[in-house]
From TrEMBL:
Its main location: membrane. Keywords: Cell membrane, Membrane, Transmembrane, Transmembrane helix, Transport. It comes from the Bacteria. The chain crosses the membrane at residues 20-41, 53-71, 91-112, 176-194, 215-236, 256-279, 291-310, 316-337, 349-367, 379-398. It comes from Lactobacillus colini. PROSITE patterns: MFS (PS50850). Residues 16-403 form the Major facilitator superfamily (MFS) profile domain. This is DHA1 family multidrug resistance protein-like MFS transporter.
Length: 404
């Protein structure tokens, strides 16, 4: 999996890369093994109306990201002083507990509360990505960013299928217990097997964030990438909370809803995993900004047919194509940040990016659950395509101003 190009890499780079890749894979696996079915889990915990189930599902998704948006700058500051490895260990260790305990839930509000607590300490994938960004030569940044995203999306591919099988056979609690155990293994492997070339910085020696932003060669570019991260994440999260409910509406009398919903939830991950390496090489050759523009317009177009699909398998097909386009979205934005931010500010810049990602997740999950509760599921896809079109126009306008 490691690229064949020869560059001077820090000692232990390969072991660190594989360990963090595996950690991101398991994090994505655990998330997608549990969250696509959270609405069905909540539905079993009380006599809730359709609107309540949609609302509580949206809140369960959103609470983690509300917490992340609030706390990420603090963790980013700590990462720049103490290193990203410690942040990865913190995320994996606490998530192993909160996810396991969520499986014991007896009400929707307990799930919502645990998801908020999880959000306060989560962020494994973002910190692992920032760690690898700081350890990797810039010539291969695009490829490495794509590979790190591939880890999470590979987990997102396997997770819904495994979660669908486990939920159908043993109930919706078991995937939470398994995920908690796996995240504890991630904590141990990150602690024992990864290495970070990091020199601690004292609080007094750290530049204030406003000084770092002033010193950046193009601060508008960084802000544009923050906004892109927010909108792209919003487009993903507007769909995720309602996928299983939408599949259920398409096949109301079927006994295999959880399994089919797992397949539908997994298909974007398959598309992204197949395309990520190639897209990463293209980014290194022609630049991430050009790749980002093509990814945004492609994703916008792909949401159009999702508003008129006849069955769940058609939805799975279009989401597979969307996954291919998604390989050119967040990795491209992260690569732009990597190439335009000094290494001593990686932790804080990536934490701000995570805050924008979290805000996007909140807006997206609430958008999806509210629109689907008040109107129809098709309207969710239409509105999501529209916000991606707005994102494309923002990036295009910035690019044209830069050329002017």
């Amino acid at each position: 999996m490691v690229d064949s190009h020869s560059y001077q890499l820090p000692k232990g780079w390969h072991k660190t890369f594989y360990t963090l890749w595996a950690g991101c894979f398991i994090t994505g696996l655990g998330y997608s093994m549990t969250m696509p079915f959270i609405s069905l889990f909540i539905e079993q915990l009380g006599n809730y109306s359709k609107f309540q189930v949609n609302l509580y599902s949206g809140l369960a998704f959103a609470m983690t990201f509300i917490a992340q948006a609030i706390i990420s700058p603090y963790w980013g500051n700590l990462a720049d002083r103490k290193g990203r490895k410690l942040m990865c260990m913190r995320a994996a260790g606490i998530m192993s507990l909160t996810i396991f305990i969520t499986g014991l839930a007896q009400s929707a509000f307990f799930i919502i509360g645990m998801r908020f607590l999880q959000g306060l300490f989560s962020g494994y994938i973002n910190n692992a990505t920032a760690l690898m960004a700081g350890e990797t030569p810039h010539q291969r940044s695009g490829w490495v960013m794509s590979q790190m995203m591939t880890a999470g999306t590979a987990g997102n591919l396997v997770g819904p299928l495994l979660g669908g099988v486990l939920s159908s056979a043993f109930g919706y609690r078991i995937p939470f217990f398994i995920t908690g155990g796996l995240m504890f293994l991630v904590f141990l492997s990150t602690w024992l097997l990864t290495n970070e070339e990091f020199t601690p910085v004292s609080p007094k020696a750290m530049k204030p964030m406003k000084d770092i932003m002033r010193a950046l060669p193009d601060v508008r570019l960084i802000i544009t990438m923050f906004i892109t991260t927010m909108i792209v994440q919003s487009s993903t999260m507007s769909i995720d909370p309602i996928v299983s409910l939408y599949v259920k509406s398409l096949m109301p009398h079927s006994h295999t809803v959880a399994l089919v919903a797992g397949v539908v939830a997994a298909t974007p991950g398959l598309g992204t995993m197949l395309a990520a390496s190639k897209v990463g090489h293209i980014m290194d050759n022609i630049g991430p900004q050009k790749v980002l523009r093509w990814g945004l317009i492609s994703a916008t177009i792909l949401f159009i047919p999702m508003t008129i699909i006849p069955n769940a398998w058609s939805l799975a097909f279009w989401r597979f194509l969307l996954g291919i386009a998604s390989a050119a979205l967040l990795p491209a934005a992260q690569t732009v940040l990597t190439l335009n931010v000094p290494s001593e500010a990686f932790g804080r810049i990536f934490s701000y990016n995570q805050s924008f990602q979290a805000i996007g997740a909140v807006l997206g999950s609430l958008l999806g659950s509210t629109i689907s509760g008040m109107f129809t599921y098709e309207w969710v896809f239409a509105s999501t395509g529209l916000i991606l079109l707005i994102n494309f126009l923002i990036v295009l306008i910035f690019n044209n101003r830069k050329k002017a």
